[in-house]
Amino acid sequence: MSAYATLLAFHIVVGAAGLALGPVVAWADAHTWPHSRELGAWYLGLVVAVCISACALVFWRRTDLWWLVPVSALTVALALLGRYAVARRGAWTHA
Question: Could you give the maximum distance between any two Cα atoms of the chain, in Å?
Answer without folding.
Answer: 49
